[in-house]
Amino acid sequence: VEFMQDEGKVYEGEITLGYSTTTEDASGELVAETPVLSPLDEKLVDEAIASLTGPIIQIPPMYSAVKVNG
Question: Global pTM?
Answer without folding.
Answer: 0.56
